[in-house]
Amino acid sequence: MEPFIEESRDVENISNRVKKDGVCIIKNYINKEDLSQVEKEFENILSLKKQRLDKSEKNKCLRENIKNLLEYKTIYSYFVNSFVNEISNKTWDKWEYDYVFIHKDVQNELTNNTNPHFDFDRKLKFYLCVNDMGLKNGCFKILPGKYDLVKEKRKKDRRKNIFTPGHKLYNGTEIKMEEMIPVIANGGDLIIFDTNCIHCGGDKFVDGKNRKVIRLHLK
Known about the structure:
By secondary structure, the protein is of the alpha+beta class. The chain has 5 helices and 10 strands. The chain has a single domain, classed as Sandwich (Jelly Rolls), CATH 2.60.120.620. Strand 1, helix 1 and strand 2 form a beta-alpha-beta unit.
């Protein structure tokens, strides 16, 4: 079995993987029939709420409260359910819903996210892949096993969260891009991710490729 992949719905195993590695991929979280409906709802949301999309040159992104997705029953059901609650309870102790982000991306923008980093505010994220995510359409990358390093950097100054020399937020420890591991997944897979795991944006998109992701944040 490839690293970070969990074929079962065993909550204990999944939680342990997230605690140990910072990431776990749940294969086939959505069946093919429901995935088709999710994609329809996904496109419908972006179309109907286009006036509220985050400003971007090419990418489309909507930031939304989970309660405002109630009418999109298939999407809502895959985020608000006992499985997500049990994973969150075992992995995160006290938690609450933050935002849902609905992304249709065609490029990795030149932001801090393209450098190896940890998030200012630690969160648990659930990525629902609406289409395949790989090396040709910007899958993100991680470097597990560095929780102690991140804890040290966060305690010193959580705003110095970048591991790239020369960056204004560089924290004094270099991590090269070639050290980062791509997180590759298929449409219908669910990625559970702790933002204390060092991560960064993926490679350049191949022309014509896009990435469709729905991302739930817990805080």
